[in-house]
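TICKET: design request
STATUS: open
ATTACHED STRUCTURE:
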């Protein structure tokens, strides 16, 4: 090798080193610039794009708050299919991984259904405040996806107990029935637990607005909240009001916050093919988006994201009846029948008397339909309790020429909406898992590191320390993991953030999770055994 060649090679290596250093500083600067204090994600469950269009036309063609944020499309498929359920759909948004059908906050069965950290949990580990707002029960699939872990969305007992013990600062919505001792297999009074944990537990809009607490838990219905068109404002707050209150409480934390808001019943209305319900709750959801967006623009350190987990119903403006003449169809043909409705199908049911002898009167006054057929009257009369929107929704759809292809979810791409104070937004066609990764990047948190801190295989880790792991199933509905080594005894109640070491209670930053296969505990629990 010649001296000149060595000099040239040395110069190239020095230049490469300099460029590498510059690049690292540049990347650090970009990362610092991208990191924000607050992230708000708003999820209109099951909102297809035609539902958004219909809601905009319903309000006279005026822009929605969402409109200015539109920036791309999102692919919604799950691990094993094109059309996702809300559980894997929401899990992808929350953790950044695809999973199996009905799975909440865990990896697929092929990977052991291991619990995996959500963006809410990673935000909590970073010192931020966290919150959940939903119009469904708070342990329903989407809110649970961000705050609990189990390979079945139906296990409300396991999901809700994790949520109660997971240190979330604000929970607003519904589902009090499922945290009352009488309705739980484990007979735990989680309402009292919530109060004992220091939350201001409120049940009315007035009490919610008056609360000055830093930890707030609001339950405004035993099950889901009403559609916004049907809502009694004295008994139930709007989604926008709950969002505003959540931001008020969470923004007290100087480290920032993460908030998930779900307009849950857009999905339910689409399942029922009830266009009035869709319009009702898309508009209510959009009002909540405006609250978040106004805060973000004022705060200047907040990212707002809106994206649905999947489409639903195959809703369209136009149906088989407009195959010919669609180009001559006036807007009023689609909108006027909806404008006559004062309630959703769910609200209609509450106006019918016990023997349903007032069907014609109720449908005329509250749904604007005065030409019911005998067959329609018969169907309304025979509808089972709780299913009226499935009966009358299609009736108004036919009159408004709103089309539907299914009563189930659909697999099309959905619209992505993002507001970022520094203009750093996802664009183009992205995957639903990219949303979690984007939120993590914007907050400067690492989801994989959070998983390693929160979900360690208990049996493997404790046995590696020479400890013995057994179960205390004295109370079958409330099992406890028992770890013994020498004179130390560590007790870890499942689905709680509690560790009891030699009789001393220690609160951990995460919960103990049993997924039906293995038990996972925070690294904190492992570190208690020396």
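STATUS: resolved
RESOLUTION: sequence designed for all positions
ATTACHED SEQUENCE:
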């Amino acid at each position: 090798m010649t001296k000149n060649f060595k000099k040239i090679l040395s110069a190239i290596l020095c230049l490469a080193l300099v460029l590498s250093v510059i690049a690292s500083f540049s990347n650090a600067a970009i990362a610092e610039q991208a990191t924000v204090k607050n992230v708000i994600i708003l999820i209109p469950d099951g909102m297809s794009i035609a539902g958004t269009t219909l809601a905009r036309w319903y309000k006279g063609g005026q822009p929605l708050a969402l409109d200015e944020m539109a920036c791309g499309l999102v692919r919604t498929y799950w691990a094993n299919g094109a059309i996702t359920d809300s559980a894997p759909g929401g899990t992808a948004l929350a953790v950044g991984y695809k999973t199996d059908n009905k799975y909440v906050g865990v990896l697929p069965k092929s990977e052991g259904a291991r619990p995996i950290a959500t963006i809410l949990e990673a935000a909590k580990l970073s010192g931020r405040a966290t919150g959940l707002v939903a119009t469904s029960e708070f342990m329903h699939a989407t809110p649970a996806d961000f705050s609990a872990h189990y390979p079945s969305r139906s296990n409300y007992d396991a999901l809700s107990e994790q949520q109660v013990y997971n240190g979330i600062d604000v929970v607003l919505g519904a589902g009090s029935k499922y945290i009352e001792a009488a309705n739980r297999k484990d007979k735990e009074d989680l309402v009292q637990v919530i109060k004992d944990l220091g939350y201001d537990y409120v049940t009315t809009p007035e009490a919610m607005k008056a609360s000055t607490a830093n930890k707030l838990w609001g339950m405004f219905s035993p099950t889901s909240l009403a559609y916004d068109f049907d809502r009694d404002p004295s008994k139930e707050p709007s989604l926008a009001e709950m969002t505003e209150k959540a931001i008020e409480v969470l923004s007290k934390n100087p480290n920032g916050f993460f908030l998930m808001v779900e307009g849950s019943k857009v999905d339910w209305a689409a399942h029922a093919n009830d266009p009035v319900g869709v319009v009702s709750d898309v508009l209510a959801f959009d009002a909540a988006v405006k609250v978040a967006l106004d805060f973000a623009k004022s705060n200047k350190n907040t990212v707002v994201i809106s994206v649905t987990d999947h489409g639903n119903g195959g809703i369209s403006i136009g149906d088989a009846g407009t195959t010919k003449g669609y180009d001559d169809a006036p807007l009023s043909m689609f909108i006027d029948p909806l404008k006559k409705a004062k309630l959703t199908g769910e609200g209609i049911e509450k106006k019918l008397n016990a023997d349903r002898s007032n069907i014609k009167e109720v449908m005329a006054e509250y749904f604007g339909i005065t030409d019911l057929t005998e067959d329609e009257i018969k169907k309304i009369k025979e509808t089972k309790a709780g299913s009226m929107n499935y009966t009358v929704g299609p009736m108004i759809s036919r009159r408004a020429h709103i089309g539907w292809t299914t009563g189930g979810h659909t697999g099309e791409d959905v619209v992505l909406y993002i507001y970022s104070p520094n203009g750093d937004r996802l664009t183009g066609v992205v995957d639903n898992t990219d949303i979690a990764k984007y939120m993590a990047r914007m907050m400067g948190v690492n989801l994989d590191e959070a998983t390693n801190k929160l979900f360690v295989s208990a049996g493997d880790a404790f046995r590696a320390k020479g400890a013995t792991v057994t179960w205390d199933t004295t109370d079958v509905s409330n099992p406890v993991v028992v770890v013994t080594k020498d004179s130390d005894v560590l007790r870890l109640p499942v689905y709680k953030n509690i560790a009891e070491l030699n009789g001393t209670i220690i609160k951990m930053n995460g919960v103990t999770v049993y997924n039906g296969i293995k038990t996972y505990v925070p690294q904190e629990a492992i570190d208690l055994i020396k």
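CLOSING REMARK: Residues 3-34 form the longest helix (32 residues). The mean pLDDT is 94.
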